[in-house]
Amino acid sequence: MRTIILLSAGYDTVSGRPAPVAGEIGAIGMALALGGEVLGVHVGPAGPTMREYAGYGLERIVALGAGQAGVVEALAAYIRSGAAFDGAPVDLVLTGRRGSGGEDSGLFPYALAHALDWPIMRDIVAIQATQGVVEVEQALPRGVRRRAHVKGPCVLGVHEMAPFTPAFSFAAMRRGEVLTYGETADSPPADMAGADMQIRPYRARPRLIQAQASGTGGQVMIDPTPQAAAQAIRDHLVMLGVLQTGR
Amino acid sequence: MTRLRPDPRALRLRRMTAGQAGRVRLVPAALADRAGQVSPSGRLRRDPRAERQRLLVPGLARARLVRDGRAGTGGNATPVQEARSQVTRIDDPQCLVMVVPDLPDGRPGRLDRQVMGAARLLADAWKGAVVLCCPASLDSAAYTDFAQAGADRVVPLPLDPTDPERSVAAIGDAVARFTPRTVLFGESTDGGDMARRVAVATGRSFMGDVEVLNPRNAIRPAMARRSEQVASTLPGIMALSPDRVAPYGGNAHEARVTGMDGDDRQSPVHGGGRIRVAPPQPGDPATMALAEAPFVVSAGNGVTDFDMFRQMVSALHASPGGSRMVCDAGLLPREMQVGASGTVLDAICYVAMGISGTPQHLQGLGRVEHVVAVNTDLHAAMVERAGLSIIADAQLVMPALLEVLRNGTEE
Ligand SMILES: Cc1cc2nc3c(=O)[nH]c(=O)nc-3n(C[C@H](O)[C@H](O)[C@H](O)COP(=O)(O)OP(=O)(O)OC[C@H]3O[C@@H](n4cnc5c(N)ncnc54)[C@H](O)[C@@H]3O)c2cc1C
Fold first, then answer.
1. Which residues of A touch B405 (CB under 8 A)?
2. Is the predicted pLDDT of residue B39 greater than 90, yes or no?
3. pLDDT digit string (tens) for B152-210?
4. Where are the domains of chain B?
5. Which of A23, A27, A82, A224 could form a disulfide with A94 if both were Cys (CB 3.0 to 4.6 A apart)?
6. Atom of ligand 1 nearest to the CA of B301
7. Nearest protein CA to atom 53 of ligand 1, as residue
8. Final residue belonging to a domain, choices A165, A181, A197
9. What's the rounded Cα separation, in Å, for the pair B221 and B237?
10. pLDDT score for B33
11. Looking at domain B290-410, which CATH architecture does it have?
12. B247 lines ligand 1 (CB under 6 A)
């Protein structure tokens, strides 16, 4: 298994300082659990944040210079070229759900998958790889899980609930190497503001307030016999559909 | 952009009112827009009823006013119910707004209705119509729901729940056929995924996590939620965050079924076949993270028999939880604590055994819809929050409930 993990130079949501992105740390943990060769790739200059990713157990990180090409094209070309693993093809690209500090749209993995013409799945909590087919488990809200088979090399987005957060170690951070590859023309990061796009400080807006199902008190049973109480609870839960009677 | 040119004479005329002794007064410019609401002496006249209406939270049995500047929540309030008997038809729309709902269980869900509300808002401002894409296999009740939610056209598509790439191809064909001005999705697990897939497949501009959406602009957080992006030209594809736009509450729309013409569909569905998704499986409640659990049964200080509690929880197929009192005492592990300093739940149903319901604990209930309380105290806050309350000793109710559940399985 040869896995590439997409790393971004993130910012902490609270402090605003450069920091690794939680979803990408989860992706590192998942790749290490899968085993095989693992490489972190960041498109852009190698900042101090890349070293911190190394502290989570990533031994090699490549800072890719995009040169004149766009970020997606540059990365797709790098993955196709085989330069990542000495000519051997890449089997898997793991990403977080979305970046933290840039546009944070979560669109990048999709654009990359489109450029590579690979299938993509996100919100993955478990991976099993056998010859040519990757079996993944996808997390849906409320603890629901969904299995899927994905053919061939693919791009997978890791869910926050994935149980693979590796421990940080200072020694690993010192040991890991951050290499540069390609033209490191220090092109300024793509400008998010445009003619019809404006950037301004975030303002938290209230969400809609929803009507609560039962405002003040519902049915009250005072001092029922335990049997009557138990029956009432059972019937109520069955009525709500949370208790299956068939089992 | 076209900008309105002010007409100084008209503005001045609007500000003029009759003063004393045949003289003409000028009302201050800030008040001129509300000329009708200005008394002859220039004082602003308040309309307490309209103000109250603006502050009112819609859909509650008991009136609730929100005064902290969050007005507008009531602005889109559901108009009177009688008006809903008529059906609004839009035969000749100037543009189309497409909606791709998630349809959990084949019905429009809460987020779907909000997305429809946003689409209605845009379509009404642009004199357009709302086109809704749905799977081909839906019952007629779903179409009634679409009409109520404000859909003008419904397009059944060969969406494939087992292969997202096939669904993308179908939606892509529909986008090519109808060329909507914008396509709206809900920012949910599946909706957000589909929105991004369609965005890269069609090459349209994309904006996800949209928190503010109106005909003038769309706003979303960016840069680790420290900045926001404001798009003054709405992107071609958007995914709307939950609970940001009120659902549509006006007249039902037509929901006319519109097919795709045969030659529009690219016959062999391009792409697809690389992903095979199995049907969703509910997780194991005993090991699932509390934040995800759909059904939680919690013990508080009123529970003393924890063996019985565990047996009852597993018989209910629920996830166990507890109040801080219980977790502090070491009777349950810390991961099971519900509340402000524990886990905030996303459950559908919550059963509280011997929990008083302090504010710190109730914070953990977030948006849990159904609560059942067992408590010896009729006046406990938890009893007030519950849909069903049993005023009895939890130690007696638990074995009885276990008995009822075991008998139920034997039948
Ligand atoms: C900063 C801060 C953070 C906190 N965060 C949390 C938090 O995250 N989660 C949390 O839970 N708490 C939290 N608390 C603590 C909270 O304020 C309460 O102390 C706690 O929730 C009370 O737990 P309880 O309801 O189990 O106990 P009690 O308040 O003692 O209530 C016991 C209830 O059981 C009933 N009862 C008694 N005997 C029986 C019986 N035999 N059968 C049935 N009912 C019976 C009583 O009538 C009573 O209503 C926090 C407090 C602070 C100060």
1. 234
2. no
3. 999 999 998 899 999 999 999 999 999 999 999 999 999 999 999 999 999 999 999 99
4. 87-257, 290-410
5. A27
6. 26
7. B360
8. A181
9. 16
10. 61
11. 3-Layer(aba) Sandwich (3.40)
12. no
pLDDT at B262 exceeding the cut of 70: no
ipTM: 0.90
Atom of ligand 1 nearest to the CA of B394: 42
Q: How many inter-chain contacts (A to B, CB under 8 Å) are there?
A: 263
Residue A132 placed within a domain: yes
The residue behind tokens 């996590």 is B209
Burial class (CB in 10 A: 0-12, 13-18, 19+), B262: exposed
Return the bridge partners of B221, or none.
Answer: B228
Cβ-proximal residues to B35 (8 Å cutoff; 6+ apart), any chain: B14, B15, B17, B27
Q: Is B324 in the pocket of ligand 1 (CB under 6 A)?
A: yes
Residues A237, A239, A240, A244, CA torsion sign: positive
Give me the residue from A199, A205, A244 closest to B317, CB to CB: A244
Does the CB atom of residue B321 touch ligand 1 within 6 A? no
Q: Is the pLDDT of residue A212 over 60?
A: no
| pLDDT exceeds 50 at position B145 | yes
Average pLDDT over residues B339-365: 93
Neighbours of B37 (CB within 10 A): 13
A110 and A10 fall within a common domain:
yes
Answer yes or no: is pLDDT of A101 > 70: yes
Yes or no, beta carbons of A236 and B228 under 8 Å apart: no
State mean pLDDT over B375-394.
Answer: 92
